[in-house]
Amino acid sequence: MKFETPDLTAQNIEKLAALFPGCVTEGPDGHGGLKKAVNFDLLKQLLSDAVLEGDEAYEFTWVGKKAAIVEANKPIRKTLRPCPEESKNWDTTENLYIEGDNLEVLKLLQEAYLGKVKMIYIDPPYNTGHDFIYNDRFEMDKQEYDQQIGLFDEEGNKNFVENSESNPRFHSDWCSMMYPRLMLARNMLSDDGVIFISIDDVEVNDLRKIADEIFGASNFVASIIWEKKYAPANDAKWLSDNHDYILLYAKNKSLWHPQLLPRSDEMNSRYTNRDNDSRGPWKAADMTVKSYSAAYDYPITTPSGRIVKPAQGRCWNTSKENFEKLVLDNRIWFGDNGDNVPAVKKFLTEVQEGVVPMTIWKYSDVGHSQEGRQEVKKLFDNNGFFDGPKPVRLLDRMLTIANLGTDSIVLDFFSGSATTAHAVMQLNAKDGGHRKFIMVQLPEPCDEKSEAYKAGYKNICEIGKERIRRSGEKIKEKNFLITQNLDIGFRVLKLDSTNMEDVYYSAQEYSQQMLQNMASNIKSDRTDLDLLFGCLLDWGLPLSMPHHSEQMEGCTIHTYNEDDLIACFDANVPESVIREIARRKPLRAVFRDSSFATSPEKINVGEIFKLLAPETRVKVI
Fold first, then answer.
1. Is 61 strand, coil or helix?
2. Which of 98, 244, 585, 593 has its Cα between 20 and 30 A from that of 460?
3. How far apart are CA 8 and CA 11, in angstroms?
4. pLDDT of 28 higher than 90
């Protein structure tokens, strides 16, 4: 097993080879060998009518964009180590809380969750003018940036470029941080999936251009305005900033449609039954329209004998013949005295069951920042810990619009205060669903002077995990009779270096004798559970399925998701144990190299599985 995330560049070359096989050739790999490469000159020739020539093109770029794209496709040798001791309901939960840099975590999740996530919500850093914590390797330092944008001349003297030392560099850093993460996030969305991204005025324009490029401008759905404050900030230097944006994109707009919002009691109260119509409550609707048609401009005589016509420049919205049918069907209202201008009766039973979502979300409907802070304070004994966490009602609105199934997966890879997890559990409690969440958060240290640090929380992840624990218990307590099977747990996984010793990946630097002297190619601090989850990542299996361990002739046997995978990492595994594993006919079987004392024993394993379980894929680490 290679224990390496997919090389997306190599995969793209394979896709290109399927379309234009003659354009894929061989080239040096930089290590004395060969690798597949693209002959771009020939590709240009084949696409001669569609290849851009010259410098003019409609595009959005910044310093470091090419490096950001390369970084998104570059494979890594990392793993996710399970932490049952920090988890809640490890054996039964299907939720995940992952600690680590979200770029690397997204790479590790590519195989297991490719096209499986229905909704993504992220609340990334807003880039308020200071360097931010996601300082990826491909970002440039200030000196390198200054050189690339021409801040210095050929002799090293500084050119005069107004305001070039601040905003442009930070915009480029921010764009380079977001671009690869969104590239990988798109891969994980299902074809009918959607992504919501919170942002403010500073980067909304750049984010829109980046998202248009990654998701396609045709898949842009809306730029939602969220009223995040309920009062003006009187200390504002210019105008009070009372809103944020939420950009909404679909993976494939033709396959996704928003779920309608539930009608409110206030909306329904507008319908009454003033004439005791057997069809129920109704409201009067205007019968005139602006789009004038002479055929629809005719006089109407009311029951009181008054003759009425549409206002100047307007006409009725139906023909005279159809109007008469509506009168016979008691669908026209002339007022209590029969003297009003006619109106059409719209019955409550005939309106659609929900309301089309609008692009302006008022705090009265979805909450404001202060509400989000109060929610956290109530959970943590009146301690806020976070500045401006998103309110649960805001996430509930997104979860509703996303048109989730009852078992959909929701991902948030800038998890922060874990409002998304809170909202998913609350929605499940409301309708009995089994939606799963995946939270990803960098373990950013808390300031030692902060209330969170004083309360014992060393990093943001510790607060987020505790918020999920506390909110889950409150939800279950509040809805005890209907939440017996509610999943309020989560498995904690932490990003770490590969389980394999470095020599495993650079064997050409060592002699055969040196290799023979090494006891193991696996790091000494890694457990069976570490190895099992490393195999799950490499094989692209979900990380939330049930598993159990059993003892068999002194060996520990790990079974994952009812024989999806059976693993044994003990040394010198008896043939009888191997035969028993083969008899169970798992889809996959994994052993450790040290499980076999000799090469013939390793070969014998293959023969055993060929005989007893020919469909099983067997691998060795």
1. coil
2. 244
3. 5
4. no
